[in-house]
Write a structure and sequence with these properties.
Oligomer: single chain
Radius of gyration: 15 Å
Distance between the termini: 12 Å
Structural class: mainly alpha
Number of helices: 4
Mean pLDDT: 86
Length: 91
């Protein structure tokens, strides 16, 4: 289960960065391409984000994480590069 959680954490972090790069770079250079990419990238990121949060809750009970560790790992999903840091330091 921990290996699957690590994979989801990495994929969630990548999707977050791809979503940001789409918003920052593609939007101003090619607005039509931006709108074509927004839904699939946003949908993938949303599903990965929800999976990350659900797996974080499951892993808290499975591995008896203290509240502080659970909070830090959960908050990392909203910070750019947060899931990469968590994967290296806490997992």
């Amino acid at each position: 289960m921990l290996k699957f959680f690590k994979i989801i954490a990495i994929l969630e972090g990548i999707s977050y960065l791809v979503l940001f790069s789409n918003m920052l770079f593609v939007k101003h250079n090619n607005p039509e391409l931006y709108h074509q990419l927004l839904f699939p990238i946003g949908m993938a990121h949303g599903l990965l984000f929800i999976s990350y949060i659900v797996l974080t809750i499951m892993m808290k009970y499975e591995l008896n994480w203290p509240a502080k560790k659970f909070f830090i790992i959960g908050i990392a999903s909203v910070l750019p590069f947060g899931t990469f840091y968590i994967e290296k330091k806490y997992l």
